[in-house]
Amino acid sequence: MLLAIPDVLDAAGVARVRAVIDGAEWVDGNVTSGHQSALAKHNEQLPEGSAAAKQAGAIVLEALGRSPLFFAAALPLKVFPPLFNRYGEGQAFGTHIDNAIRIQRGTEFRIRSDLSMTVFLEDPAAYEGGELVVEDHFGVQRVKLPAGHAVLYASSSLHHVTPVTRGMRVASFFWLQSMVRDDGARRILFDLDRSVQRLTGELGGADRSVIELTGVYHNLLRHWADA
Ligand code: NI
């Protein structure tokens, strides 16, 4: 599944994040890479665990906590602390796959990366290139979203970021472990959730069929979820 999640951050939220990160110290992006992706990666990022990354990451996580669409699609169990990267002219990230297990440096915190997320933090008109290209079973998806919008996609997908040819691409990126490991099962739950929400709007929450379908949703979740 690949899903755009609009307006995770509003303009003020994007400005708050940018105010924190723009003046911070950036380092070579290869500090978080495995050996293979280090060969492909050319960008800068905020050091993991730096004060700026923590402060800006808290803003991103707080915003995600207010997004019912994010919750319904991701069913998050554990979220890796958000990281931040930027690509200047000529920088890119070649085709790679994200590591299956992410360990937060200097802590016991570890997750299985089921889903990868990018939150765009720059106006797309302000830079050229810098598209996130994700290869999934439905073909190749090219993603470049307005500032504050996010994309959620299966971490099992090969993906790359095309070279920036003008301006600067700025984004937050991170991984999460879902309560539901299987992408197909998670997709079924998401579709059912959306249908139930729509029926609730049309028929009201006291409708017998709405109650029964809500039961089916929760019973499937009980079946498939780790909590
Ligand atoms: Ni990646």
Question: Roughly how many Å apart are the termini?
Answer: 21 Å
Enumerate how many helices there are, as a single number.
6
Residue share in helix = 25-40%
Largest sheet geometry:
8 strands, antiparallel
What is the H-and-E element order? EHEHEEHHEEEEEEEEEEEEEHH
Mean pLDDT: 95
Low-confidence stretches: none
Rg result: 18 Å
Rough outline: globular
Ions, cofactors and other ligands present here are:
nickel (II) ion
Regarding CATH, which class of the largest domain? Answer: Mainly Beta
Describe the structure.
Strands 1, 2, 4, 5, 6, 10, 14 and 17 form an eight-stranded antiparallel beta sheet that branches. The chain has a five-stranded antiparallel beta sheet with strand order 3-7-15-12-13. Strands 8-9 form a two-stranded antiparallel sheet. The chain is globular, with a radius of gyration of 18 Å. The model has no long low-confidence stretch (mean pLDDT 95). The protein is an alpha+beta fold. The protein has two domains: 2-178, Jelly Rolls (Sandwich); 183-224, DNA Excision Repair, Uvrb, Chain A (Irregular), CATH 4.10.860. The longest helix is centred in the C-terminal third of the chain and has 21 residues, at 183-203. α5 packs antiparallel against α6. β8 (101-103) and β9 form a beta hairpin. It is built from six helices and 17 strands. Bound molecules: nickel (II) ion. Nickel (II) ion binds at residues 96, 98, 159.
